[in-house]
Design brief:
By secondary structure, this protein is of the alpha+beta class. The chain is built from 11 helices and 12 strands. The N terminus is likely disordered.
Length: 249
């Protein structure tokens, strides 16, 4: 079961793709808050079948934390650099709730954590990218990960910041050629993505003065907004969800 958790997390950490994916962030007055990345990949399971579960048929409904995994010594980090080891250990803040029912083709995955600052949240991305390197060890994954030769740190970069009542989300493509190559080899996944959605749900401690992203819908409280796009829009233009939110003083 540990191999299933790690295998699925690596896929999520590398591409963040799903049938219905939502990114939810709550920010408090002091800059602390909570973040959740929720995936409903039931249609993805229907398409990939045993490729997703490693041939296992048992159903799973489990809540786990990386803190417990590290405490029990279930991850061998010795093959990674000291820098990557430090990054992965920042995953101790993360909790995961996974539901996987092969008979019903149901798969939901929620990764969530509390953070003390936006910088604290930012470190989680580096940790999940480092986890992809750990997946190159077949003893951990159970089989060679076909994506293990790709270093996410060299393909894309995600950054968040929150300073002087201005929140920014920035996704930067570092290697357009490699990203284009990945897009050209999506195969059947392209049809799935074309019917999938990517949604942002952001909540702030003050009322919103402006949101730079197109089609953002501000909530009734004036302190939150949502924006939803087709996944293929994001695949074809990853920077489409770059945004700047200015709050009232």
């Amino acid at each position: 079961m540990k191999k299933i958790y790690l295998g699925l997390l690596v896929v999520l950490a590398t591409f963040f793709t799903s049938c219905e994916f939502s990114e939810t962030i709550y920010i408090n007055d002091d800059g602390s808050g909570k973040v959740s990345y929720y995936l409903d990949g039931s249609e993805l399971m229907q398409m990939m079948g045993s490729q997703m579960t490693g041939g296992r048929e048992e159903s799973i409904d489990s809540m786990i934390s990386f803190k417990d995994i590290f405490r029990k010594g279930n991850l061998n980090l010795s093959k990674l650099s000291s820098d990557d080891q430090k990054k992965i250990k920042s995953l101790e803040k993360l909790n995961m709730h996974m539901v996987m029912d092969t008979k019903k083709s149901k798969f939901t995955f929620d990764i969530f954590a509390n953070f003390k600052s936006i910088r604290d949240m930012q470190s989680m991305f580096g940790a999940m990218n480092s986890l992809n390197k750990l997946a190159q060890d077949s003893k951990i994954m159970g089989s060679k990960n076909p994506l293990s030769s790709i270093d996410p740190d060299k393909v894309t970069k995600m950054e968040y910041s929150f300073n002087n009542n201005v929140f920014k989300r920035s996704f930067q493509v570092l290697d357009k050629k490699l990203l284009d190559s990945l897009k050209q080899n999506m195969g059947q996944a392209e049809m799935l993505f074309a019917a999938s959605t990517y949604k942002l749900n952001y909540h702030f401690p003050k009322k919103i003065k402006s949101v730079s992203v197109k089609d953002a819908v501000i909530g009734e409280d004036g302190k939150s907004f949502t924006v939803k796009i087709n996944v293929m829009e994001f695949v074809n233009n990853p920077e489409i969800l770059n945004l700047e939110v200015e709050l009232e003083k």
